[in-house]
Amino acid sequence: MKAFPKVFGLIGNYAPIMAEMDAEELCVIEGELPEGLNGTLYRNGFNLMYPPLAEEHNWLLGEGMVHAIRVENGKVSYRNRYVQTEQYKAQRKAGRRLLLTTVHEPPAEGGENVPRNFGSINAIFHSGRLFVPDEWSR
Question: How many CA atoms lie within 13 A of 125 on its CB side?
Fold first, then answer.
């Protein structure tokens, strides 16, 4: 597989997380949790699953990933998942990047009919479910 380029947005704290995971009962290593603190923080962000095809790269056009940090009864857990967009599903099936992460470039071979997504922009919690917009106008 092609390596991720060493450009802002793909290195350091911005580097993609390459696996979905569940981490139960994390340790608090500094300070302590306030008594009675319970709830979940959801964070949606950019997370490429495959390296960009071109040198130019736009965060908005990559895959999205939702992160959840849950605090309940003095215990903390973490979970992350890719947003299940059509773009994500098609690239996962192909095992490679099909859509460029640039604005005006055509898709790679096999990605001609795959809609681009905005699965990394926003998340809305409504009626007990977390919703993420999954595509932009074609």
Answer: 9
Strand partners, 25: none
The DSSP line for 19-77 is S-EEEEEE---SS-PPTT--EEEEEEEE--SS--SSS---GGGS-EEEEEEEEETTEEE
* Tokens describing residue 57: 């790269």
Q: What's the number of CA atoms in the CB half-sphere (13 Å) around residue 99? A: 28
CA distance 116 to 131: 17
**CB proximity list for 40: less than 8 A, separation 6 or greater:** 68, 69, 70, 71
Place of tokens 């098609």: 90
Q: What is the pLDDT of residues 24-49, one digit of tens each?
A: 999 999 999 999 999 999 999 889 99
**Cα(24)–Cα(22) distance, integer angstroms:** 6
Distance from C-alpha of 59 to C-alpha of 45, rounded to nearest angstrom: 9
pLDDT band at 137 (very low <50, low <70, confident <90, very high): very low
